[in-house]
What does this fold into?
Amino acid sequence: MIASPVGLWSRNDLRARWRSLLVLGVLAGVTTGLAVASFDGALRTGSALSRLEERNLASDAVVFASQSSLEQPHWTTLATRPEVEQIARWQLVFGLVDGVDSVLFAPGDDVFLNTVDRPIVVEGRMFDPAATDEMVITDAFVGEPGVLPGVGDVVHLDAYSSFDPTAPPGPSVDFTVVGVVHSSLSYVFTGGMFISPGFAAAYQGQIVTAENAMVTLRNGAADVAALRRHASTDVFQGVPVLDLQVTARRVTATTDVERAMLLLLAAIIALSGLVFVGQAMARSAAAIGADAPTLRALGMTRRELTLCACWPHALTVVAAVVSTVLTAAIASRWFPVGLAAQVDPDRGFRFDALLLSAAALGVMVLIVAGVALASWLAAGPERPVEVARHARLTRLGFIRPLTVGVGMRMALDGGRRSARRTSRSALVGATAAVAGIVAVITLNHGLADALQHPEVAGIAWDATVVPNPDDVSPATGVDPAVVAAVVAQPGLAAIGTIGRTVTQIGEVGVPTFTVVDVVDGRAGGDVRLVTLTGSAPHADNEVTLGPSTARDLGVGIGDSVRLADGGEATVVGLGLFPSDVHAQFDEGAWITAGRFFGPVPNGSTVSEGAEFVIAVRFADRTDLEAQVAELGSSLGASVQYVAPAELPLELSNLHNVQRLPEVLAAFLAVLGVVATGHGLFQSVRLRRKDFAVMGALGITRRGSRLILAAHGTMLALVGLAFGVPLGLLAGRTGWQAITDRVPITFRSPFALVAVLLVVPAAILVANVLAVLPARRAAKLDPALVLRTE
It folds into this structure.
């Protein structure tokens, strides 16, 4: 082939242009590699939790026998139920850890942390089951003092022998941290300190414990309803069951957003490469067109001319394939990002042979096809110069000053086919950049607004005042004197006493809440639980349910349910509730105080075993942390402590997402700058003759600058005209999808000031980008250009 005319031409062309062809291939490969790495990162983000659960042999549900005050629950009957595959018992151990009131976890059998919820050891080793003084900690756990102990550290435990403060102290043991582990429980349930089962066995009878169980189900989430029914009959009536498939949304609600962002990032990189590197590749392949008349006169066919252009680009293909594989493999070490990076058991470098092979094949096919098409078109017979006739665009020529009209028409039309392609690419790029930036601003505003307004997730207060145990009575709630002391504090806008217990509603154990009368006797007080639809309960025969609880019970607004006291109540609304380790914020029931403190058939009350807190909302919410500290200091020993209202993990985890939109906005801004700048430079290059003719007709250098300024401004205006509404729609739709996924209350996101700032910013950037092309156009010598054309 080398001795043939095609071979000789290709060899000479390769010698002359090998550097540019090599650079072109590297650019194509790096762009493709980054897009592939982002795409792979999105795939890994979406599967991070499921892969961790698979490695951990994760359970499907938790049965909280301890919430029903059972000291020695019996699991034998439940274990024989057809939906149950395995039960793993574990115990809560209570005491002071380095002086801080804490709870530790201990396996209650040889199943938990072994064949069910087996963690990945990331440092050190697992504890010896027979040891009485060894523990492992989860890598996502941060102790109460804010210090994460490491392998080899010693943690001191003063175990409780009873919940009675007058009881003698339990054993004091120094535990050695022998390992750090990675477990899905840290994200869907809770992490912390796991002590060896030998401790509980050695000190049985000397320590107070509470037993619960993890359950793996034969059909996963499909069997949770059956498990709830059978746990209520086999373990204890109304025993709460936590569906870990549902709590997985604490992670997946965030990782789904991260995955979408990475997919969008991959698409932006790929499209940018396709437009800009693709145009450079097409120009490189079309270079044969300049010599085509001569070569055609020497006897070369169109096919041979195409081959002459294609063969030198084999170097480009090789460089692109190698660069794609290397870039994608190297960049994989940065993925996943955000919350998925914490969850993923295999974060970091990954060489996915199948994905990289597909990427290499794809970039090779795209380059070969693109080069072949561009060179085939360039090697064809010469076409007459096209004269575009667009009546509406022609009218732009009548705009005064003339230079402005010409610049506007250049931006919208472009003239010849090559210039028109460049013009359209610039318009599309500018529109996409503006739309993307506005969408990201809108989405980020929704995230920030949700984090600043926790009521969207059921938290309608700023701080929680926890009373001393002696000031709480299950029959009446918090001592009125304590409530009055809180009411007397300055700077409070709203106060309410909230009671929580676990009761059976229908066949399901449900966290049940009430808002107790406050000070002046008004029912419900000032702080209210959040209602999504319908209304709050005002009469004793009314109840508001969480959406998830309503689904479990198969009821809706207007239906009746049977409460723990045996009576009926009508569902009057759906609402959100404070979440904890035992339940989600869309699980629960809200009843009136009269019903909450009412009797049940066994002679006790619904509120038996209830917990009570005083919820407060500050009048000035600018510095909540300082106000919480000030309130706690003012109340002093009259209460146990004051803490900020705790956000549900589904909401607080969205903090991890906020950085990704910023990165995405930066990429989109770069896309807009490159698209606009490329369009302006190409306009000058492809329309040199037009600028020369205008110069010969009297257009001054200042006029040339005005033409390019008008060109850039028109690109920005078109981008704004189409991009802003598209971006607002996309951002709103994206935020709606997130709120549905979490789920939280939807509040329409609209960052008016930020969106308005996009308008002058886009116009300013376009005019700045027009400066250098304008200088180039102004320096053109009309005589020289027209002579060489």
Observations:
- The radius of gyration is 35 Å.
